[in-house]
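Hey,
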Amino acid sequence: MRGASAGEEGLPSTLEAIGAILDRLGIRWVIFGALAANLYRAETRLTQDVDLLLANAGPGVEALEAALRSSGWNVRRAIPDGSMLRARHVQHGDVDLVLAQTAYQSEALARAQEQVFRDGTRLRVLAIEDVILHKLIAARSRDIADVESILDAALPMDEGYLERWAAEWEVREALGQLREAAEQRRQRRS
């Protein structure tokens, strides 16, 4: 496992601030997105926000929004039902909060592992396979670049789990193509 560095400077204060609110509301959360990917990538990349996957909304989306606002966060619903909130704080930056809504996301939350960041902060982060799957599902160019870099790092993975959910989410072909390209890059380097 690698330690994330790019974009981590404000990590402790951001996660301490938002984590305190989520913890107070009884909401279990884990890091995913670029910050999580940086733990597994061959080379880290800059990221401007923190992405958190939430097990639930605790007392409800409205109560979560109210708690964030009362702590100085500007909150808006990126999805009208509140399953994705975007929060911005003058001191702490941007945080995307995504509510788990599928059996897969619930399993990913259960598989999350505590990781140690370079500053010594210990936080729960999605497992490598789940970071890859979330990135493949999102399929933006930066997400695909994250998957490429993770595959280049050649870290151990639960291949059966990855294959099962890649097939379920219909991203198996994309995963296969990215794996093949990673193998070609390794062969060229050796």
